[in-house]
Amino acid sequence: MTPKADARHRVDRLWPEPALDLSLDEAMASFAVPPSRGGRPLVAINMVTSIDGRAQLDGTAEGLGSRVDRHLLRLYRAAFDAVASGAGTLRATGAWLRVGDDLAARRRAAGRASNPIGVVIAGKEPVPLDARWFTGDEQRILVVGRDHPTVDAPPGTELLRAPDERPAPAWVLGRLAERGIGSLLLEGGPHLNAAFLAAGLIDEVYWTVAPQLHGTDALPMIAPMPGVPGAPRTGSLVSVLRHTDELLLRYRFDR
């Protein structure tokens, strides 16, 4: 990372072991994805929201997070085996799930592919097969529901068809585990996050709190969804970083 870029990525570590004016790479140097659990990939959510919990600004997360948040997103991606989004996120943003040249080189040096495996999960809603997500040389998996109209995925993309109308998160994780994937990072949207929560399959949450109040009805990090357990799951705070007025939080959820 160049000195100029490093100057933009300064954070204070508030918890644990407080320290001031660190580079984000230094603060994240010890980050490691926990091992897979119970024969299925470990699952984490990475999202940015406003203070009042809105995860969208004009339909996407663009404009919510800072440069530091965007760099942190790439650091998280680089640590995982696979990165997933829902079809709605793909339609809204193109879901560009790569890590950048520096982190790709770091992954190759560790004997891994340049980028994590890309996963898009859809029920029967349309998938834009011309999206830039379908370009590039990284491995990609498109998971669709039983009745989805897609018959053939674009070249370089494996198509998995679930036995149900909407791919069940446990079924998806089972298919990913069969392919040697030990960790999955969810980058939304809120309905996909809700489906994994309803299935009890969220292990960690990486949450950037942007210093904004929106007062809109935009979707939150996790959308209201029938079947989500009524009793809340309680997480343990693992780390807190601060970049100016933005908070970068990590929580762990044990079974």
Provide the fold topology.
Blueprint: H1 3-8, E1 10-15, E2 19-23, H2 24-27, E3 42-50, H3 67-79, E4 82-86, H4 87-93, H5 101-109, E5 117-121, E6 140-144, E7 157-161, H6 169-178, E8 183-186, H7 190-198, E9 204-210, E10 236-243, E11 246-252
Parallel strand pairs: 3-8, 3-9, 4-5, 4-8, 5-6, 6-7
Antiparallel strand pairs: 1-2, 1-10, 9-11, 10-11
General description of the model:
The protein has one domain: Dihydrofolate Reductase, subunit A (3-Layer(aba) Sandwich), CATH 3.40.430.10. Helices cover 23% and strands 26% of the residues. It is built from seven helices and eleven strands. The chain has helices spanning 3-8, 24-27, 67-79, 87-93, 101-109, 169-178, 190-198, and strands at 10-15, 19-23, 42-50, 82-86, 117-121, 140-144, 157-161, 183-186, 204-210, 236-243, 246-252. Strands 2-1-10-11-9-3-8-4-5-6-7 form an eleven-stranded mixed beta sheet. It is globular, with a radius of gyration of 18 Å.
